[in-house]
Amino acid sequence: MERSLPRRIVPKTVAAALGGILCLSASPAQPQTDDQARLKDAQALTGAVYAALRGRLVPSGRPFTWSNDFFKGESGNTYVPYTLTIERTKLPTSTAAMYVFVTPRLLTTKKPAGPVVPETEEPQAPLAPEAAFEAISFVDLSADHGQGPYRIGRRFSLPPGDYEVYVALSPSLGTAVSPSRQVNPAAPMLIKQELSVPNLWTSGLSTSTVVVAERVEPLETALTPEEQDLEPYTLGTRRITPARETDFRKSDELAVIFFVYNEGLTAQRKPDVSVDYRFHKREAGGESYFTKTAPQHFNSQTLPAFDAAAGHQLVAGQAVSLQRFPEGAYRLEIRITDNTNGMTLTRSVNFGVR
Questions:
Q1: 202 vs 160, 300, 351, CA distance in Å?
Q2: Pairwise CA distance, residues 165 & 67, whole Å
Q3: 42, 79, 141, 229: most buried, per Cβ within 10 A?
Q4: Does one domain contain both 296 and 345?
Q5: CA distance 152 to 150
Q6: Would you call 306 helix, strand, or coil by DSSP?
């Protein structure tokens, strides 16, 4: 189970985070409580992100990796589930502290008018960039007993546009440490990720990201918002586990899933969409056609209960055995055709077979 900071100290802006957390640190003469230790974690994380925002700290390297997908959200927004992948040795405690700050990406940055703020002086709150989203959380790692890297999944929703995402991550020093590992007291790990959020609410045919899935599981009921935070790839009553990699064994299946948006409707208020799947082998000299699978048809015959007014969505995808695929690199070409108006889209997925 994941714990968050008490509501009264969850920061609304980076400047507020620093101001609020600095005055709540533990007294050296008293034992440090769990919440006080987490406040120190939060101070270090927000301080690192604020330094990066002010240009005083430039993230070097990629101590962990970022991946994300895009789905249609609510009220014109785009839903963005994301995954952080990090080696276990970098998080030797049972809990990780994480701070995520998202700000609109500006084409040019102008220095504010007025006197220059000395490096030793705390900048004023108005200098802090706009926060499109921010969150501090403490991620419970104790139940993950796997052998591979940790995968931390979370989510946010944003209007379409270009953004910069800052993620600071560190072991939480107020939690238990594995006896075989040592905590590195160095600065928090930090990445900066540029993000271009598409508009999935346009009037024309569109799709979500095509997700390569490790598995897709049906649920009896939708998750609560708190559960959704911890399982961001659960969409409605479908729990999607993204594949860890796109390099597969011949004994595996390639499973893909995606949503079709803004399709036209027939006179019967039903969709009429066809989806074709073609596989191409990628080689040094170019591509060559390899095979195709049966197309999918979404229409009044295959979806008699479809009701756009009730919010029903088209969910497409296939799981294909790779047994007959020779080793090599491939591209899956997905062609989506809206037969009500002739609009077409093409999506591609690169993968390998070993």
A1: 11, 24, 30
A2: 12
A3: 42
A4: yes
A5: 6
A6: coil
CA dist., res. 158 & res. 329, Å (int): 34
On whether residue 348 sits in a domain, the answer given is: yes
Task: Note the pLDDT tens digit of each residue in 103-136.
Answer: 999 865 444 554 555 555 554 544 568 999 999 9
DSSP 3-state of 11: coil
CATH number for the domain that contains residue 58: 2.60.40.10
Kindly give, in sequence order, each residue whose CB lies less than 8 Å from that of residue 291, ignoring residues fewer than 6 positions away: 278, 279, 324
| Distance of alpha carbon 21 from alpha carbon 28, whole angstroms | 16
Side chain identity at 194, as an amino acid letter? E
3-state secondary structure 250-272: CCCEEEEEEEEECCCCCCCCCCC
- pTM comes to 0.84
Residue found under tokens 């508009």: 199
Amino acid letter for position 101:
F
Task: Give CA–CA dist 312/72, Å, rounded.
Answer: 13
pLDDT top residue among 13 and 255: 255
Share of the chain above pLDDT 90, in %: 73
DSSP secondary structure, 72-102, as one string = E-STT-EEEEEEEEE-GGG--BSEEEEEEEE
Residue 346 within any structural domain of the chain = yes
> H or E stretch including 291?
strand 286-298
Sign of CA dihedral 348, 163, 155, 202: negative
